Amino acid sequence: MVADADDRLPAFLPLAETQDIFHHRCINFGRNGGQIDMKLARMAAAFVFAVSSVSACSCALLFQGTIEEINVASDPPGATVTLTDGETKVTPFSITVPREKDLQFHFSKPGYQSVDLSDNSQVEPGFLIVDLVPLMLPWAIEASAGAGFAHQQTSVTAHLDPEAGVAGDVPTKAIAPSPPATPSPGATTGE
Amino acid sequence: MNSKNADPAGPASAPIRVAITALLAVTLLLGGCAFTTGHVDLAYQPTTEATKLATPDSPHVTVVVTDKRPTQVVSQKINGFGMKTADIVSNSDVPATLKSAFETELNSRGFSEGAGGNVILVSLSNFQNQFTLGFFSGEATAAIGMQVTVKHPDGSVVYDKYVTGDSKDWVEIAGEDNAGRQLNAAMQDGVSKVFSDSAFIDSLRKA
Q1: More confident residue, A134 or B206
Q2: Fewest CB within a 10 Å sphere: which of A37, A128, B77, B161?
Q3: Torsion A51-A52-A56-A58 (CA) sign
Q4: Residues facing residue B151 across a β-bridge
Q5: What is the pLDDT of residues B112-134, one digit of tens each?
C-alpha cells in the first residue's frame, strides 16, 4: 500500500487534481504489492459472498421448516370438520400441514348450518428476496420443499349459525382463494 | 461522412437494442402463459363396469346440484417462484357437469330419472386444483368436496354425507391441461366414492 504524504489531502481540491491523485494512487497500488492485495481483496469478497450465501441459503427451510400448525375451532365447539383429503376431526383441534398446501375445511354440526372455510398458502416474500442473493438456488430448494410458504391464517374459527330461522342451508366462505373475498356474516377467521 | 455520423446513437446503442429485443422476447414468451387466465374443459369420464343395482320397483330419481363455491376459479397458475400468477376457470358449467356425472352413474346402475321419486341434492362447496413446486417437477393436486343428501318423496332425509375426492400427479407445467386432467380425475374419484357407498345406493332403492 502507498502511505506517504499524498494521503494527507486538503479538504477541497480541484476536480482535475483529485483525478490525478486518484490515478497516481491506483497505479502505485498496482505496482507496490497491489497484485497481492487485489488477490486478497478478491478472496475476501469471495469468502464474504460464500458465507453470506451459506448463511442465507434456504433459511426458511432451516428456521421454520416445511410444516405449519393450524388451530381450528368453531363456535359452538364440537363441530365435525372434513378436511380436503376426507379426514374428519372434531373442533377444537390443531393440525400440522405442509406449508405450501391450500386448505379447505367443511364444518358441520347437527342443528347448524354448514360452513366452508379456506386457508390458502402463499409465498413469503422475505425469504424469496433473501434467496435472490445466491442466485436463487436456495429458493429452488425452499420452494420444492415448501418451506418458503405460509398460510394466511394460523388459526381458523368458524361461526356456525343455527338452522332454525334461517332460510336454506347456505354454507359460506370467509376466505376465497382468489380474489380476496369479504368475510361473510356466517363465517369468521382470525389470527 | 465518417463512421461516427453513420451511427448517430453511438456505440452504446447496440447493447440497448439487444436489451430491448431481449425484453420484448421475454415479454412475448411470458405473456402467453403465466399471466393470462387459463380455461379448462371439464368432462366426466364414467367409471367402467357399473353393475345394475336398481330393482324394478326402485323409484325415480332426480338430481339437483347447487353450486356453493365461493369462486368460479378452479385453479391458479404459478410461476417459477411458486407465486400464483393467473386464474384458471372452467369453460364448462361445473354444476351441470357434476349433475351429468351423477345421472350417468345412476343410469348405468339401472336407476331411471324422473320427478316424484327420490331427490339427490348435491351441494358443491369445493372444486379446485392446486399446483405446487418441486425441485425437478411440480405437483398438481385437485380436490372436490360436496354434501350429498338423499330425500324421499315425503321429505325425509335418508342419506346425508360430505364426500371428498382428490387426484394428484407430477407435472412439468402448471397450466390448464394439467389442471383439467386432475380436476376431471378428482370429480371421478368423488362421484365413484358416492356410488360405492352402499348406504347411498340403499337409500335410492326405497321410496
Answers
A1: B206
A2: A37
A3: negative
A4: B119, B157
A5: 988 889 999 999 999 999 998 87
Q: Name the more confident of A63 and B146.
A: B146
Cα(B152)–Cα(B170) distance, rounded to whole angstroms? 43
Query: Do B74 and B129 meet the contact criterion of CB atoms below 8 Å apart?
Result: yes
Percent pLDDT > 90 in chain B is 55
Distance CA B90, CA B96 (A): 12
The confidence score (pLDDT) of residue A143 equals 74
Q: Which three cell numbers stand for residue A31?
A: 505496482
Q: Name the percent of chain B in helix, strand, coil, to the closest 5.
A: 30, 35, 35
Examine the domain organization and report whether A71 and A155 are in the same domain. yes
Same domain, A52 and A75: no
Q: Are residues A73 and A145 in the same domain?
A: yes
* Residue B185 to chain A, least CA–CA distance (Å): 14
Specify which residues A73 forms β-bridges with.
Answer: A157
B20 lies in the same domain as B52 = no
Q: How far is A4 from chain B (nearest CA, A)?
A: 40
- Tell me if B153 sits within 8 A of B127, measured CB to CB: no
Q: Any chain B CB within 8 A of the CB of A144? A: yes
The predicted pLDDT at position A47 comes to 77
Whether B128 sits inside 8 A of A170 (CB atoms) is: no
Q: Which residue bears the cell 342451508? A: A169
- What is the distance between the alpha carbons of residues A164 and A159, in angstroms, rounded to a whole number? 15
Reference A80, options A113, A107, A115; nearest CA is A107
Strand A80-82 relative to strand B38-40: parallel, antiparallel, unpaired? unpaired
Asked if B84's CB is within 8 angstroms of A82's CB, the reply is no
Nearest partner of B94 among B120, B113, B64, B74, judged by Cα = B74
Check whether residue B3 and residue B80 sit in a common domain: no
Instruction: Residue A84: count other Cβ atoms within 10 Å of its Cβ.
Output: 22
Domain that holds residue B163: 38-205
Say if B170 is an interface residue toward chain A (CB within 8 Å).
Answer: no
Which pLDDT value is given to residue A44? 80
Total domains, chain B: 2
**Minimal CA separation from A116 to chain B, in Å:** 7
| Higher-scoring residue by pLDDT: A12, B81 | B81
The residue among A105, A147, A103, A99 whose CA lies nearest residue A126 is A147
